[in-house]
Amino acid sequence: MIDLKDLSNPGPLPSINAARVRDLQIPLPPLAEQQKIADILGAVDRRIQAEETYTRALGDLFQSLLHELMSGRRRVKFTTENAESNSQEGFSHV
Q: Looking at residue 53, what DSSP letter applies?
């Protein structure tokens, strides 16, 4: 493990010299293990992109529905039962 304190110049404002970093030897895992790591990270990136796309789509849908509700193009039936239960399941289109 690399300890950055060993690379830093002592003093009131510690710093790391570029030459020390350049000469540093960093151990790398075997190529097969690097490929496995890259595959896993690629899958994670694809999942993140899918979730972001889904989130944007939900946001667009929300904005669309909000616009329709505010413009009066879409109405909801409001009853005492669904107000008391605080559930969206009781709402229906008119």
A: H
Backbone φ, ψ for residue 13 (5° rounding):
-125, 90
CB 21 within 8 A of CB 2: no
d(C-alpha 7, C-alpha 17), whole Å: 7
Per-residue pLDDT of the chain (94 residues; tens, 9 = 90+): 777 777 777 778 878 878 878 888 888 999 999 999 999 999 999 999 999 999 999 999 999 999 999 998 988 887 777 666 655 555 555 4
The verdict on pTM exceeding 0.70 is no
CA angle (11 as vertex; 9, 16 as ends), nearest 5: 25
Long-range contact pairs involving 23-27 (C-beta distance under 8 Å, separation at least 24): 26/2
Structure tokens, 85: 């239960």
Name the region of 59 (left: φ>0; alpha: ψ -120 to 50; beta: rest). Answer: alpha
